[in-house]
Amino acid sequence: MLKVAYRFVKYTPPVAVYLIFLLLLAIAIAPALRIVMFGLSLDDLLQLHCFAAF
Fold first, then answer.
1. What's the whole-number mean pLDDT along residues 4-26?
2. 44 vs 12: CA distance, rounded Å
3. pTM above 0.85, yes or no
């Protein structure tokens, strides 16, 4: 099993690794990107108001 994993890592092209990393990064920051791209909506403002620590 370990040998198969090493072989998989050894023969995976670096471009594939970078593409997977960029995809995961885009998924991780999607909520922030949505606000930057489309601006704040009423829903976003309500969430900020309801979950803000006073």
1. 92
2. 40
3. no
Beta-carbon contacts of 41 under 8 Å, excluding residues fewer than 6 positions away, are none
Structure tokens at 25: 């990064």
pLDDT at 18: 95
Spatial separation of the C-alpha atoms in residues 5 and 40, rounded to whole Å: 44
Domain, as residue range, for 29: 12-51
32: in domain: yes
Residue length of the chain: 54
Which pLDDT does position 37 carry in this prediction? 81
- Report CA Rg, the chain: 19
Domains held by the chain: number: 1
